[in-house]
Amino acid sequence: MTTIPYPIGTPGQPWGAAERAAWLARQIRRRSYATEVLDAIERLRTQWDVVEYGRLDYASDHYPLLAIRSRDWRDDLPCALVTGGVHGYETSGVHGALRFVERHAADYAGRINLLVAPCVSPWAYERIHRWNALAIDPNRSFRADSPAPESAALMRLVAPLREDVLVHIDLHETTDSDESEFRPALAARDGKPYEPGEIPDGFYLVGDSDNPQPAFQQAVIAAVAKVTHVAPADRDGRIIGSPVVAPGVINYPVKSLGLCAGVTQAPYTTTTEVYPDSPRATPEQCNAAQAAAVCAAITFALAQRAQPVA
């Protein structure tokens, strides 16, 4: 297959400052974090605590980073962490997290503390992009001395709770633009050849290969399957190049890759992947699927915690 070279950089040579600047100059604000996210969070203040856990400052762009927190927080309860918008272009991750708080979170009052960071990467949300303004992927940057301020801020927020988090669900999407823009840009940035992949049609999960929790993953898949379709394996039994270990589930070593799902010591973790470009899914279904995944994850984790030790 012949591919068109990415319009920035020289094939085989990693980007330097000039190429990153050229890439940044191409990025255009396409939607409003203030209107679409901050206003939605503001409406939740009557029932939830809202904390500003950091600020992003990119030239003339300034963004408060907000998290939604249980008002009736109890130190004797475990915590559920919900994150969305680590990749800002993955719209249902953001709005699925907000939908969960608006419609479902009250069902868990008195049973678990909730901490929801619905839009980890607001600069990228506005530009419908995967990277931040530094051409860095925040979801490969959850590690010590993180180069991504979005990731570093979330890690600071979560640090005091790392041992208390029972379940963490990180809400993502896989889109057609992964192949048309983001993977070619990644190859160009790193001076590597671009190898075309296949976008799966449907929802799937990425578990932790070091702590896979298959029953947990399947409980989430079963709940989401009532809302939207689950991605099948490709002809090689894979999804995005990884072996399918159960219907709709693949595993990554999340901590070593610096993924958001590895930011705590939670026994139950997963990353959702919705496919918004499918002709079989609407934006409403995508948001609902994300919220259903969160509910299923928390419900399963609470049920396992309630079981007596043998």
UniProtKB/TrEMBL annotation:
It comes from the Bacteria. InterPro entries: Peptidase_M14. GO terms for biological process: proteolysis. Keywords: Carboxypeptidase, Hydrolase, Protease. One of its GO terms (molecular function) is metallocarboxypeptidase activity. Residues 29-310 form the Peptidase M14 domain. Belongs to the peptidase M14 family. This is Peptidase M14 carboxypeptidase A. It comes from Dokdonella koreensis DS-123.
